[in-house]
Write a structure and sequence with these properties.
- The protein is α+β, with helices and mostly antiparallel strands and 557 residues long.
- It has three domains: 177 residues, FAD/NAD(P)-binding domain (3-Layer(bba) Sandwich); 173 residues, FAD/NAD(P)-binding domain (3-Layer(bba) Sandwich), CATH 3.50.50; 169 residues, Flavocytochrome C3, Chain A, domain 1 (Alpha-Beta Complex).
- It contains 15 helices and 21 strands.
- Strands 1, 2, 8, 9, 10, 11, 20 and 21 form an eight-stranded mixed beta sheet that branches. Strands 13, 14, 15, 16, 17 and 18 form a six-stranded antiparallel beta sheet that branches. A three-stranded antiparallel beta sheet has the order 3-5-4.
- Strand 13 and strand 14 form a beta hairpin.
- Helix 1 packs parallel to helix 15 and helix 12 packs across helix 13.
- The protein is globular, with a radius of gyration of 23 Å.
């Protein structure tokens, strides 16, 4: 640095989401002096707004069910990714992900459980797992964070009835109207929520719970986290990244980082200029569920330092409802429940509604590009569906008047009137429903094969036969909701190697610069392997970066 630094540390980590926190914890245990900075006033990033599931092939929890091996996971990934990603990076992920998880568990930084029964997103593919690779954080008592709890990025509580529970527990609760026995599998949520209200325990689950676990670990190890502190630019000495200029609470400061800088600052989903440059016209920052501070700062700083980028044209897509004046709501398991269809603006089905969310959005985009109006698409269902299943944060059978008044939910006493309100052809919609209903009764979706995959059936209703994902739509009143091509964040970013080191266009390494999470080009290429396919690699490469910076490459090799 040309001027004396204001601060000196071993490792500077930019961005306090799951990747940055996992990196900082690993570096601290490895003996490094770490500084973690966060641009916004809240820590947690997009992870705090998510379901908090982590995709970790070969994790120790799978041992009781026959286990899992790196070769199987690698076969599954390679089958779907092809040569889009350096094989060394894929191998690093599948071998290091379980080590990352055990490191966090062994040090008390995280407690997890299997996301019960959840298959990979393409469970019939070679090397796929029927369950076990997706794990979720156990519930965390937020009051243990003390004053730091107020700085945790919080999502609007979209769980039915505002209940705090794990994804597994909430899935069981969602099935109670169809099968009351499911209540026995999730009864703990009720005393827990009562205790939380009575004592102020402030229990946290899902993504907020995951981040709370990691933040507590940082507090226990006295790792500093500076909020309202942004990366201005990286500083190099003799071609090596030696630190950064930051803006802390409005003041310019310089940090020397003896072992390097790790960029974990998220993607560029909320930078419309970058979206316009790299993504196609079917997306919008208005549909994104990524953290508001994700505007590509880390990616831009890296490219200014000579870094290569990749996968900038892609994102982690997720179909989303967008309530007027509110944040988007991603639509995951609701689509797989029997008794709904999704149609384009012509009133036609165009996909298996239960498809993995990334795949469904791509089909929405393809329809739009082909000239068929599909943005928005429309999710259509009847009173039976509304009475049995939670939807958009609403309990079964309880449809908020404000949603009807605002047009977020469209309700009509007949299919003809519903089509009129949606401004689509009534005959086409009636014909679509007629054909769908006949197939639903027979239990065979001849058009899009809904319910044939184990992934579809996981989201379905096992009390419905002969196909748990299909039921006729025939009981008035009828409903529709607009569905947009949302995302969980962008997928492109700084190109890295198997050590999480950032590389140039010619393949050479930029010494002292690392990246992980959505600031880096995804190790998954254009594929989405399973629940937690964003968070698992993010945390793993944060872990790898820290070990490499600490000179402990034997642990990440």
């Amino acid at each position: 640095m040309s001027l004396p630094p204001d601060h000196q540390v071993d490792l500077l980590v930019v961005g306090a989401g799951a990747a940055g926190m996992a990196c900082a914890l690993t570096a601290s245990v490895a003996g490094l002096d770490v500084l973690l900075i966060e641009k916004t006033e809240y820590y947690g990033g997009t992870t705090a707004l998510s379901g908090g599931v982590i995709w970790v092939p070969g994790n120790a929890l799978m041992a009781g069910n026959g286990g899992d091996c790196a070769d199987d996971a690698l076969r599954y990934l390679t089958h779907n990714i092809g040569n889009r990603v350096d094989p060394a990076r894929l191998r690093a992920f599948v071998t290091q992900a379980p080590k990352m998880l055990e490191f966090l568990r062994d040090n008390g930084f995280l407690a997890v459980a299997a996301f019960a029964g959840f298959p990979d997103y393409r469970p019939e593919d070679p090397g796929a797992a029927a369950s076990g690779r997706s794990v979720e954080p156990k519930v965390f008592a937020g009051r243990r964070l003390g004053q730091a709890l107020a700085q945790l990025r919080a999502r609007s509580n979209l769980t039915p009835g505002g209940i705090v529970g794990t994804m597994t527990e909430l899935r069981h609760l969602a099935a109670v109207r169809s099968n009351p026995v499911e209540l026995l599998k999730a009864w703990r949520v009720f005393p827990r929520n009562l205790w939380s209200r009575l004592t102020g325990a402030a229990h946290l689950a899902s993504g907020a719970g995951l981040i709370a676990w990691l933040r507590y670990g940082l507090l226990e190890r006295n790792v500093p986290l500076w909020l309202n502190t942004s990366l201005d630019h990286l500083v190099a000495e003799d071609g090596i990244i030696a630190g950064a200029q930051i803006i802390r609470e409005g003041s310019v400061e310089r940090v020397r980082a003896r072992r390097g800088v790790v960029i974990t600052a998220g993607g560029f989903e909320h930078n419309q200029q970058m979206r316009d440059r790299f993504l196609d016209e079917t997306g919008s920052s208005n549909y994104s569920s990524g953290a508001p501070g994700n505007t590509g700062d880390g990616i831009l700083a890296g490219t200014a330092a000579g870094a290569a980028v990749d996968l900038m044209e892609d994102a982690w897509w997720a179909p989303s409802f967008v309530p007027p004046g509110e944040k988007p709501q991603i639509v995951i398991f609701e689509r797989g429940k029997p008794g709904n269809i999704i149609v384009n603006g012509l009133g036609e089905r165009f996909a298996n509604e239960a498809d993995p969310y990334n795949d469904l959005v791509r089909q929405i985009q393809e329809q739009q590009r082909s000239g068929k109006p599909t943005i928005p698409a429309f999710m259509v269902f009847d009173s039976t569906y509304r009475d049995k299943y939670p939807l958009a944060g609403m309990l079964p059978g309880v449809t908020a008047k404000r949603h009807l008044d605002s047009g977020f939910i469209i309700k009509a006493d007949s299919i003809e009137n519903l089509a009129h309100r949606l401004e689509i052809n009534a005959d086409t919609l009636a014909n679509t429903l007629g054909r769908f209903n006949r197939m639903a009764i027979a239990g065979n979706d001849e058009d899009f094969h809904r319910g044939e995959s184990a992934f579809d059936r996981f989201a379905g209703d096992p009390q419905v036969a002969p196909n748990p994902c299909l039921a006729p739509i025939k009981r008035p009143p009828f409903y529709a909701m607009r569905l947009y091509p949302g995302d969980l964040g962008t997928k492109g970013g700084l190109l890295t190697n198997e050590n999480a080191q950032v590389t140039r266009n010619d393949g050479t390494v930029i010494q002292g610069l690392y990246a992980a999470g959505n600031s880096s080009a995804s190790v998954m290429g254009n594929f989405y392997p399973g629940a937690g396919g964003t968070i698992g690699p993010a945390m793993t490469f944060g872990y790898i970066a820290a070990l490499h910076a600490a000179g402990r490459t034997n642990e990440a090799g």
